[in-house]
From TrEMBL:
Family, per entry: Belongs to the glycosyl hydrolase 22 family.
An example Gene Ontology molecular-function term: lysozyme activity
Keywords noted in UniProt: Disulfide bond, Signal
GO biological process: fusion of sperm to egg plasma membrane involved in single fertilization
Signal sequence annotation: 1-19
GO cellular component: acrosomal vesicle; sperm flagellum
Protein's name according to its UniProt entry: Lysozyme like 4
InterPro entries the UniProt entry points to: Glyco_hydro_22 (IPR001916), Glyco_hydro_22_CS (IPR019799), Glyco_hydro_22_lys (IPR000974), Lysozyme-like_dom_sf (IPR023346)
UniProt xrefs under Pfam families: Lys
Organism from which the protein derives: Ursus americanus
Domain Glycosyl hydrolases family 22 (GH22) residues, every copy: 91-109
PANTHER family the record matches: LYSOZYME C, LYSOZYME-LIKE PROTEIN 4
Amino acid sequence: MKASMFLSLIGYLVVPSGAAILGRCKVAKKLYEGGLDYFEGYSLENWVCLAYFESKFNPTAIYENLPGGYTGYGLFQIRSHEWCDKGKNRCHMSCSALLNPNLKKTIECAKRIVKGKDGMGEWPSWSLNCRFADNLARWLDGCRL
């Protein structure tokens, strides 16, 4: 009896919450359609790589970075303290708008971020995982844009 109740409880805890994880090619297509391919000189492969390392292609991801004092929102984990309405609001939008799987607001905000002095370097994960990667082309392998 205890074992079945325990397994039932575990089942409730691991059931997906309806998170809309997107496939790699779907992300690539949406970013391409949103005009990110070579925006400010960064290839589409860079953007797809960034999306993977920031959210594993989850446009509804929210990550609280307590040591850093911010929360990351959406596909690119855009930081609340600088870019959306829980901070300086440089993108002029609500943080919740960055969680929409259509990615329109996310792309709009990412364009604003990358126009800054650090470019994609604003995202440490890009600098660490994508910036000097010699295999970026793999992020678009098999994708029809």
